[in-house]
Amino acid sequence: MTGESASGVLIRSAFLDEAFAIASILREAFIEFEALYTPSAFAVTTPTFNEIQARWNEGPVWVAVQNEQPVGTVATVPKSAGLYVRSMAVLPVARGQGVAGQLLREVESFAATNNHKRLFLSTTPFLAGAIRLYELFGFQRSDEGPHDLFGTSIFTMEKHLGNENE
Length: 166
Fold this sequence. Notes:
Layout: E1 9-13, H1 19-30, H2 39-45, H3 49-54, E2 61-66, E3 69-79, E4 82-90, H4 99-113, E5 118-123, H5 128-136, E6 140-142, E7 148-149, E8 152-153, E9 155-160
């Protein structure tokens, strides 16, 4: 668990009973982009409470808490290709305070502690703010697939951690 930031945001492991809050954060964070997704891709991007609970044991989930309320979230899934970053979102009212950066730093810390050499994620070309953030954190676009999420264009971004020659 990390300490509280200057904006009063604490990043901590999420609790299973916060699955509803996490589902709400994802929906509220992505609703402004809904028209740019196909209905199926939007449904996968904004999983329901039950879907979040069902995938709970696939990897760690964190929440960003401000004034005792969850305002952001991110999850990871260990894979053979590295640590997959998914379901990253910050409520619109909490954007611009460094919350997403704090979440990414927590993911990187977890990856380093657990000897993951690569972080990777999928995003859509229209999430320009998220792409800028990922690039600021050293992620680069990869030719690796997938390139399509139920009819919505996506691409992979990756970040290599540590010494490649280890």
